[in-house]
Design brief:
The complex is a heterodimer of chains A (112) and B (123). Helix content of chain A is 0%, strand content 49%. Chain A is an all-beta fold and 112 residues long. In chain A, strands 2, 4, 5, 6, 9, 10 and 11 form a 7-stranded mixed β-sheet that branches. Chain A is globular. Chain B is mostly beta strands and 123 residues long. Helix content of chain B is 0%, strand content 56%. In chain B, strands 2, 4, 5, 6, 9, 10 and 11 form a 7-stranded mixed β-sheet that branches. Chain B has a 4-stranded antiparallel β-sheet with strand order 1-3-8-7, with no helix packed on it. In chain B, β4 and β5 form a beta hairpin. The termini of chain B are far apart. The chains are: A mainly beta (112), B mainly beta (123).
Chain lengths: 112, 123
């Protein structure tokens, strides 16, 4: 199984400041079609997860351009250019290349 | 508006069975693969199972193989998860999610999620 590791696990951020979350996989997520099968989700308190970024760097519909995804192979990053209070919650990466699909442990973003 | 609504959760004793349902609306259900994902209390997300659009392909996480069965009825726009031989460690909120793409012919990615249904396995 592909193991996913996120860091940090806790991320206190001041509103207006940037934030960055790292996600690493135990195997390359780069497929022969050139896409990285790595997605990012945000689970706000008391809600279901919502898709933020798919295939490594593509913002999902309705996601503000403050959010961006980058990386390739085994190392990926989610960046928020200017954190807002509405961004609090737990961020998860998931490898979507092969079953069993596996999530990272989650990164809890909180406002300072 | 694309929507998924789970139901069927509850409190059940260890070793018993439960069937979850997920009603889909707002999109052509029969075209898309579907997932089940769970979240134990205070824990992270765990992918459980996926089925292809026609139900011919089914994949499971090892911890539920032989006990859980994913299925679908495209005439009713409904996804199911039959859970047998339930264990306390199966206690979780169970979400269904719509797959967004295919990889190696298997549905992948989750772009729409339901609100979840809670399963508690306890004596």
């Amino acid at each position: 199984d592909i193991v996913m590791s996120q860091s940090p696990l806790s991320l206190p951020v001041t509103p207006g400041e940037p934030a960055s979350i790292s996600c690493r996989s135990s195997q390359s997520l780069l497929y022969s079609n050139g896409h990285n099968y790595l997605d990012w989700y945000l689970q706000k308190p008391g809600q279901s997860p919502q898709l933020l970024i798919y295939l490594g760097s593509n913002r999902a519909s309705g996601v503000p351009d403050r959010f961006s995804g980058s990386g390739s192979g085994t190392d990926f990053t989610l960046e928020i250019s200017r954190v807002e209070t509405d961004d609090v919650g737990v961020y998860y990466c998931i490898q979507a290349l092969q079953t069993p699909y596996t999530f990272g442990q989650g990164t809890k973003l909180e406002i300072k | 508006q694309e929507q998924l609504v789970e139901s069927g959760g509850g409190v059940v004793q260890p070793g018993r069975s439960l069937r979850l349902s997920c009603a889909a609306s707002g999109f052509p259900f029969s075209v898309y693969g579907m997932h089940w994902v769970r979240q134990a209390p205070g824990k992270g997300l765990e992918w459980v199972a996926v089925t292809s659009s026609d139900g011919s392909i089914k994949k499971y996480v090892d911890s539920v193989k032989g006990r859980f069965t994913i299925s679908r009825d495209n005439s009713k726009n409904t996804l199911y998860l039959q859970m047998n031989s339930l264990r306390p460690e199966d206690t979780a909120v169970y979400y269904c999610a719509k797959a967004s793409r295919l990889i190696f012919g298997v549905p992948s990615g989750m772009d729409i999620w339901g609100q979840g249904t809670t399963v508690t396995v306890s004596s």
